[in-house]
Structure formats: C-alpha cells, structure tokens
Amino acid sequence: MPVSMEELVRLCKARGFVYPSAEIYGGFRSTYDYGPLGVLMARNVKEAWWRQMVQLRREVVGLDAAVLSSPKIWEASGHLKNFTDPLVDCRNCKQRWRADEIATFEVARIPGTVTPVPEEPRTGVLTCPNCGSHDFTEARPFNLMFKTFAGPVEDEGAVAYLRPETAQGHFVNFANVLQSEHLKPPFGTAQIGKSFRNEITPGNFVFRTREFEQMELEYYVPPADAQRWFEYWREERFQWYVRLGIPSEMIRLRNHAKEELSHYSAGTTDVEFAFPWGWGELEGIANRTDYDLKAHAAASGQPLEYFDATTGERYVPYVVEPAAGVARTMMAFLIAGYTTDEVAGEKRTYLRLHPRIAPYQVAVLPLSKKENLSSLALEVLALVQPVTMCDYDDTRSIGRRYRRQDEIGTPLCVTVDFDSLEDKAVTVRDRDSTAQERVPIDRLVEVINSRLSW
Ligand code: ATP
Hints:
Blueprint: H1 5-14, E1 18-20, E2 32-34, H2 36-55, E3 60-62, E4 68-69, H3 71-77, H4 79-82, E5 84-89, E6 96-98, E7 140-143, E8 147-149, E9 159-162, H5 167-171, H6 174-180, E10 187-196, E11 211-221, H7 226-243, E12 251-255, E13 267-275, E14 278-289, H8 291-300, E15 306-308, E16 313-315, E17 318-325, H9 326-337, E18 338-343, E19 346-351, E20 362-366, H10 371-384, E21 390-392, H11 398-407, E22 412-416, H12 418-423, E23 425-430, E24 436-440, H13 444-451
Parallel strand pairs: 3-10, 20-21, 20-22
Antiparallel strand pairs: 1-2, 4-9, 5-6, 5-7, 8-9, 10-11, 11-17, 12-13, 13-14, 14-17, 15-16, 18-19, 22-23, 23-24
C-alpha cells in the first residue's frame, strides 16, 4: 500500500530523518532540519549523483560557487526581471496561491522514451484548493529571490541576493574552467549546493521549501548538437532514478508546454514522480541555449566562448542542464521504498532502499550485552566502519532491533551470538527477504562489499 503523507512525516520524525525546524518555538513556515539518518541519506543521494555525473565521466568536472555573489549576475541572467511566479489571491477565502500551480497543464507524450505518459485533463480554470472558489484577483508577478545586504550599511549599493539556483555560478566561471582544464565541448561542470527561493506556497513536507539543495550539471555542447544532448540527458537522468530503485511506473518524463517554459529555455522536460498527492517534479532538464553565456558576456564585457585552436573555430556553446533537488529525490526514495509485509505472522514495515542510498548499510547487533560478546561485536564493528556506515545497537530484543533496522532501511544486519565466540562467524540477515546466512568474520568485509556493488 502506498505510504500516506501523515505516515511518511511521522516516520521521518520518529526515526530521525527530518524534523520540523525550530519545533520548540512552534516551527518556522515549512522549514525542516535533517536528523542523524536524514543527513546520512542526503549525503548518499548526493554521492550517487556525483558518482554518476562526475566520477564515471571523463568530461565533467566539479565546481562549488558562492551563495552570495555580485547582484550583477542576477541582472544579467534576467532573474531580477523574470524570476517571478504569478501570484493570485482567492477573493473568497483570501488565501494566496501560485496561479500556475492551481491550474492543470496538458501533458505531451514524448516520442522514443520508455515512459508511458498518461494524459491529464486541461482545465485552464483556476480553482482554490482551500475553498473551491474560481474567483481570483489578477495574477501579479512576484520575484522569488531573497534580498539582503552585504556589509554593515543597508543601502541600495549593498543589496545582494541569495542565489535562487546554482546554475549562474557555473556560467560566470565558464572561462575560468576552460582556462584551468583542457576541455572541449561537449563538457560539463557539476555542482551541489544550497539555493533559496521565497516561494509563495511552500509545502508538501520537504517538496517545496524556501531553502533547499540542488544538484546541477551544466553541459556545454556545440549548438548544432544541443537537441541530441537534450534527449540524451532526459533518458540518462530517467534511468538514474530507476537504477537506484524507483519503479518505472512511479516516474515519468513530461515536456513543458510553451507557456510554461522559463525565459531562457528552448525546451524543458521534467522528471516527475508519483507523490501521494499526484505527479510532482523531481528534476528539470532544460536546453538553456546560449542565453546565459551571451547575457553574461554582454553584461561583463568578457568573451564567454569556446575557441578551437586546431580548427580556428570560435562559438558560444549551448547549455543542456539537468537540475535536480536533493530533498525531493530523498522523499521519492522514501515513498517508493516504503513497504509492508508479514514476517512470522507479524506485520512489518521496511524501507526497500538501494543499499547505497540507505542511511546505514550495515548494523552490528550483539545478541546480548555480556562482556565477551560485546568485545567481539565491537571488533566486528571496527572491521566494518572503515568500509561503510555502520550502526551498532545492543538494546532491547533482537526481534525489535531487526524491526528498527528494517524501518530505517538498513540492508544488512550482522548478528554476533554466543556461537560466534566459538566458530568466529556471524549471522548476516537480509532486510528484504529476512534470509540469514552464516559468514566467517574474516570474510565479512568481502561479503558486505559484494552486496554494496553499484
Ligand atoms: P517547481 O516548478 O516545482 O517550482 P522549478 O521548475 O522551479 O520547480 P528548477 O528551477 O527546475 O525547479 O530547479 C531544479 C530542481 O530543484 C527541481 O526539480 C527541484 O527538485 C528542486 N527545487 C526547486 N525549487 C525547490 C524548492 N522550493 N524546494 C525544494 N526543491 C526545489
């Protein structure tokens, strides 16, 4: 049965994935903190992304740009003028909404992809999700950038903005990267970091927050190849989620309608996931054309182009951008992984997470707290810790400890029992099948490594 939002939020809080921020003060407007398991899982999501986008590729390099930088960036990129959402007020209940969120879009079928895209009705009519009224004020553009002041004087000259996307940090470093790395299009820069948007309607747990983390690749290509690379990244990104355990029927690709496209985009496809409330975006893949490089070149007076010394060719590359969110991805893995079954006549809940995404890969569980067992269990822990994240739990009954590890998605439990003292072996229990296997301690790391292979 699919997990409800109430159950997901409960589990996240109870098990230490996600806490409401400033809860002791009554919370703070859809803001969340990551607990001990949440940080581990978020790190794994980022690591899985980095591995695929940087480590396994020859032509992609990393970058980590500043959150606070020159406001000239946002003027040149068009964000000061265009990074707005249409704000409407319901005349009946006075609630404030994003007009595009409360209308539905027609969904286009994408030829040549593996994803079935069900049609959705197009209503074009705004309906208030709170009271059902159709009576709204005219849409007004609302800029989503957070404004602040750099330095002690709060005047116009000190205005700065928290970045609303990591992308511009890539573009303003385009020439630096080309200079320090010998790269030729197609090549990319990858960056993971915080972005900030003053969202009109944050909500749906961590789906839409005002502070969030993005994982963005800017992939520079010869203009004539942009469409091909756009299609390549759509498929590549879709498969990344499937490989990490999202069932293909819970995810789809959706093309943006023309009216929906961002000011810089010649084409955008969203990777969408079947959230409990309906389809929602996990990632946007956009063909940003040469819009950004040209805009920054014009505003800064610096040439931002590629020069091929062997052919004498000079051009401004097009950019294809797959941009994903850490929290939404994490939430999708939690929802897709949430499973209930019956073990020995008892109902059990477990998270069927990919072993590399789960917060802990291994839990070491001594059967009792007796001195001789504890010291052997700690030796086993010391063997596993350098290899991967390992939990250690010697409280309560072994059955309850297995349930806890199941509920937080730990793929392997290693139980140290009294026989272990004699046979120098441990029991390795599999989360999904609950099957148990006796493994000699000196082969344990090898067994764990084979289970963790990507
Ligand atoms: P939406 O349409 O949901 O507002 P977007 O299309 O504006 O999202 P992008 O600019 O494409 O989002 O950003 C790339 C990714 O960053 C999104 O797919 C999402 O995963 C993440 N993201 C964007 N805004 C938020 C937010 N407010 N909270 C959490 N994640 C976000």
